[in-house]
Amino acid sequence: MNSLDFSHEDVERARRYHRPRYAAVAVAFAFTAAAYAALAWSPPGRALWHLVDGLGWAGSAAAWAAIVVVVAELVQLPLSWWRGLDRERRWGFSTQSTLDWLADRAKGLGVGIFVTAAAWTAAVALARAFPGWWPLAVAPVLAAGVLLLSYIAPVVLEPLFNRFGPLEDAQLAADLRALGQAAGVPIRDVLVADTSRRTTKVNAYVSGLGATCRIVLSDTLLGAAGAPEVKLIVAHELGHRRDRHVVKGTLLACQAIGARMADKGRGSIVNLSSIYGMLSPVQELYDFRRAGGETFFKPIAYSVSVKDGAGLPVRNVQVHWAVGPARGSMNPVTSATDSNGIAVSTRRLGTVAGTDTATASVGALTVRFTATTLPGAAAQIFKQSADPQSGTVATAVTAPLVKVVDQFANAVSGVIVDFVVAGGGALGVTKDTSDAAGLATTGSWTLDTIAGSGNNRVQVSAPGVASVTFSASGIAGAPAQLAFLIPPSRSVAGDTIAPPVRVAVEDRYGNIDSTAKNPVRLDFGKAAPGGTLSGINPVAASRGIAVFPDLAIDSANDPLGVGYTLLATSVNLTGVESNAFDIGGVIKAFTSDRLRPVAAAFNPKNGLVYVPGTNNSLGVLDPFKGPISQLQILPDSAFGVAVNAQTNRVYVTTFGLAGAVVVIDASNNSPILTIPLAGPGRGVAVDEAADRIYVAVAGDTVKRTPPSLAIIDGKDPRVIATIPFREGGQAAGVAFNPKNRLVYVAIPDLGVGVFDPATLAHVATLPIVGVKGAAGTYGVVVDVPANLVYATNRAEHTFSVIDPVGLMELDRISVGALPEGLGVDRGTAYVANSGTNTVSFIHQDPKTGRYVVFATLIVGPAPKAAAVNPLTGHVYVPTFSDDHVRVIQP
């Protein structure tokens, strides 16, 4: 550290932050020591002991340990709060609330009680078992406990305080693992801790042992530092592990002892293993006796004795020591003989495993020493077989082969290697022991039956070593069968089936053969009489899929029948039949006698359809048999019709000179009475539960009556109340919502009026086209299950979706020209477009949430309404210009 690293202000700020904290630590230590003394020697301490004394020796030991931990926590709590929360907040470090801080302290207290109680109980048990030499028993047990805590803490204790997730920056994670590898610290995981929940300080650490060893980065560090800074901090933490201070200190002590023994001429040295392998000297020991008659066994240092021709030791002779290339070193390389004619040098083994010699020479005299360097612990696994691979599904590829090496790339034998299928396929064996060349294999690898890129994976691992993964891509086999990838779906007669039908060419396991170009043909499996299939057919597969872009069927099927199915065939391939699907369209058309129909309503009570017309008649239709009667019972031209199935009554409104509501008994289709209105009758709706009829009445300039909503009592058929239109205007369609019991009226020059019959109030008017109102709002209907209101607009040629709760328009789409009446069933709206002779089929797109016209059906000239039969799904459409009622199967 020098003056360039931190400014004077930085140093002073650090001192102001740390010095009070150090003082607080000292005070907390003093308080804790005083508390321990009080527990040991004061009357309150003895009183607490008496509380637990009767729990048996194990219970007393555990309970007393818990009391000691709790008392120490309570004594330290005020200073801990000041040091860990209050002061941290003042300095801008803490991000914790007081409750969160207390929760952390509580969790830490719980862990402390458990660990301390367990350790203390174990110590007392050993002391009772070995009263004479219990320290010798307790020390290794507690040391083993510390090692166990170091191993399990990352996966058991640390998650109690932080949430951990993998580092998302894959490159940085790989770089940090490489740092660990370089430091000789195999890292399993690189994790990120959510320390920002507590502090703005940055941190990183290495925790765990063996399989739990991981690098942990604080999320504050990742937010404040770049990759180089993160690597620097982690490298510092890894240095603590790489330096191996304890191991090195032990080895240095052994070397010093060995040198001392060599100097004294006695002692014994055992072989030592380390990261460099195991020194196992094979040498002839010079069998000489010291004056005291003691034998010098296996010196750790090589030694030679230099004698003259008479066999007497020669002093101060320079002995030269040497080893082969890359086989280590001698220290010193030259040493002089002592008074006994002995010269000593220490050999350090090299990084290459194997047997090699060292020499000691004086002139032409040479002595050889043999040493074998064994491989170190397994440090890495290298792939020896091809990777990645590809092959046909359910066939064999080259079996994974790996080589286990130590940190210096020496082959390591006898290591159990695990092979785990991580993504499909089967292995010959799942465990193998590395041989003398360090090799291990599964013997065989058969791919899964599912095709895909890299979908077969084998993870190879060994204890304490980072795993490697082999991958293989499964390729589809030869074409064998067909399958509908996108089957035919419901459509309208004459319309292109959408989405386009797609047929896949598959192998026998159901994988699409992306190279297949087989021609695929579609034919009817089950079909309606007279139905024909049009469009490009057959179609050649491209990348294994045949797409039919313009497939259409010209006839609707019987809704009570089985529908259509399609057969897909191709030469030499197994064909397939689709599921049944429906084709909608006009399945029947009934003619009336100059009825000029303008509306329609279905009566589920008797299964009949009621169709009023402008020729003062009401047509009664059996959808299966045809027209039943055409009743000349109306005082003027009809406008609307509604049915109360509970009372089995039909209500028809008339306009012109005689505005009225004609009530018909549907049990015999005869009129009951005619209720006069204050003006021309327009749309009509029924509240079946309350037996109320709601009629939109146009204003009468002669009678000077304003437009209004008339309320009729169905039990005593008469107008019992009227609600004037607050803003004037005219009237068209009417709908009743049983969920909120409000009535919705299409007011052509304003929008949709909302009326509350309970309070006789005009609640609101929804201008569904801009602020100027909806000049052509005409038809209105309530989708009860969806709790939505739909309206048509003749001037704008649109269909609107209205939220009756929020009183706002949710969506608006274009339909055919001059849309008028509409119906709804099972999430689909049907709009009669009188200007384009069509019916629009509308639903909500599940992907976008927008409402879309998914089909348009030509039905006949000037369709006026769309009445739905909820039992069969049929839609009854009266066409004004040709006096027909058409039955549509959606």
User: How many E-type strands?
Assistant: 62
End-to-end separation in angstroms reads 84 Å
Mean of all residue-level pLDDT scores: 83
Strand order of the largest sheet: 5-6-13-12-8-10
Q: What's the shape? A: elongated
Which assembly state applies to the chains in this document? single chain
What structural class should be given to the helix and strand makeup?
A: alpha+beta
Our estimate of the beta-strand percent is 35-45%
Question: How is this structure best described in words?
Answer:
This protein is of the alpha+beta class and 890 residues long. Helices cover 21% and strands 37% of the residues. The strands form 16 sheets. It has a six-stranded antiparallel beta sheet with strand order 5-6-13-12-8-10, with no helix packed on it. It has a five-stranded mixed beta sheet with strand order 15-24-23-18-20, with no helix packed on it. It has a five-stranded mixed beta sheet with strand order 26-35-62-61-60, with no helix packed on it. The radius of gyration is 47 Å and the shape is elongated. The two termini are 84 Å apart. The relative contact order is 0.04. Mean pLDDT is 83; it is low at 1-5 and 245-300.
